[in-house]
Design a protein that fits this description.
Elements: H1 3-31, E1 47-53, H2 60-68, E2 77-84, H3 90-94, E3 101-106, H4 112-120, E4 127-131, E5 136-137, H5 141-146, E6 154-164, H6 172-189, E7 200-204, H7 218-228, E8 232-244, H8 249-269, H9 282-308, H10 312-333, H11 335-340, H12 342-366, H13 369-372
Length: about 375
């Protein structure tokens, strides 16, 4: 095998491992390490739900009422809304007239990390949960989110974000969300979970780790520091936040660029992630996060290797890759195609995610981190 062929197969192995090999490996391992679900709590602990909001006048009131209506002891539930320098009436809308809800207004937009840090200075409950303005909790979600804390080794709990496709845009994004959810469940069973959904998670308040200004991925920073503290991050499949699928791929693309840029930022701010002897979940973090950042670069490398190879087999593989990417681009350009062909929606989502990953490094290097976070 010549150098060009070897380079091609190495490049192919990276995305195959990232998107197929690792999930299958963890699925196999998790079957041997399924953890018992703790029983109902004898006494539900006091909990504060924190929402960071920027220009959310239209929906923050409904979001606060949704949380206060949860089936949780009313005298043990509080809500803090941090208005992150909104230019609209978010603060006024968040004040729903319930004494359990407190609104903190910041004079200027400092980003989600600053908003959460500000809120946590006011939290006196043993458990803090985090929510976003856009989603809605399913009934019983707060109880399900708190229940795993009856295990003293659990320092944080991840809920499950589910996507409703209200725009008829195909199933690709929903399929990706289901795969991610399954992977997180399996990582949790094996003690490897290190990332949560920012829309629905909770932690023991003393384990909250103050974030540097401009931190994009609070939903990685916080659970990673729980792991660094020697505790475990659990997953509760009955704690559910419902979200709507984006109206078009462009909206989700921008969101993914921001999220993936946050992973590069996290590496710069937590270099211990790269060191197996300092990162207790190094293998899972490398396999789940870093390999996906590297995957699109490997895909470009596979294309280049085929272009440089004189072998007819690799020329055929080049044509196959081009046809596959072309098919995905057609599905993005014509959503009706994605609605009729589930494979088209999956291909479009895969291409969109990897294009976002490819652009995430220059985005992280060139943009103001405060502009990389928006709650929409």
């Amino acid at each position: 095998m010549n150098a060009t062929a070897l380079a091609f197969w190495i490049c192919v192995a990276v995305p195959v491992y990232a998107y197929l090999g690792y999930p299958l490996l963890v699925r196999f391992l998790a079957r041997t390490r399924e953890r018992a679900i703790p029983g109902p709590a004898e006494a539900w602990p006091d909990i504060t739900v924190v929402i960071a909001a920027h220009n959310e006048e239209a929906r923050i009131s409904g979001r606060v009422r949704d949380i206060l209506a949860q089936d949780y002891p009313p005298d043990r539930l509080q809500v803090i809304v941090v208005d992150d320098g909104s230019s609209d009436a978010t603060a006024q809308a968040a004040d729903v007239g319930d004494p359990r809800c407190r609104v903190i207004r910041l004079a200027r937009n400092g980003g989600k990390a600053l908003a959460l840090d500000t809120a946590l200075r006011s939290v006196a409950t043993p458990i803090t949960a985090f929510a976003d303005a856009r989603q809605r909790f399913a009934p019983g979600t707060l109880r399900a989110l708190v229940q795993p804390f009856s295990d003293p080794q659990v320092g944080a709990v991840a809920g499950e974000l589910r996507i409703r496709d209200e725009h008829g845009g195909g199933s690709g994004l929903g399929l990706y969300a289901r795969i991610e959810s399954r992977l997180r469940h399996d990582e949790s069973a094996f003690g490897w979970l290190h990332g949560v959904s920012g829309a629905i998670h909770a932690l023991r308040t003393p384990l909250f780790a103050t974030m540097p200004a401009g931190t994009i991925l609070d939903d990685m920073w916080l659970p990673l520091h729980v792991v660094f503290a020697g505790k475990r991050v659990a997953m509760s499949d009955r704690a559910i936040a419902w979200d709507s699928a984006p109206a078009h791929h462009g909206e989700e693309f921008r969101r993914k660029v921001r999220t993936l840029a946050g992973n590069w930022q996290l590496i710069a701010r937590l270099p211990r992630l790269l060191l197996p002897w300092r990162n207790p979940v190094w293998f899972a973090w490398y396999s789940h996060k870093l390999s996906r950042l590297l995957a699109p670069w490997a895909m470009v490398g596979a294309l280049l290797a085929c272009m440089l190879s004189p072998d007819s087999m690799y020329r055929a593989l080049l044509l196959t890759q081009c046809l596959g990417y072309g098919f995905a681009m057609l599905a993005i350009a014509w959503p009706g195609m994605a609605r009729r062909l589930p494979l088209a929606a999956t291909a479009a989502t895969f291409l969109m995610l990897n294009a976002a990953s490819l652009l995430s490094l220059p985005a992280a290097l060139s943009r103001d981190s405060r502009q990389l976070w928006r709650p929409h």
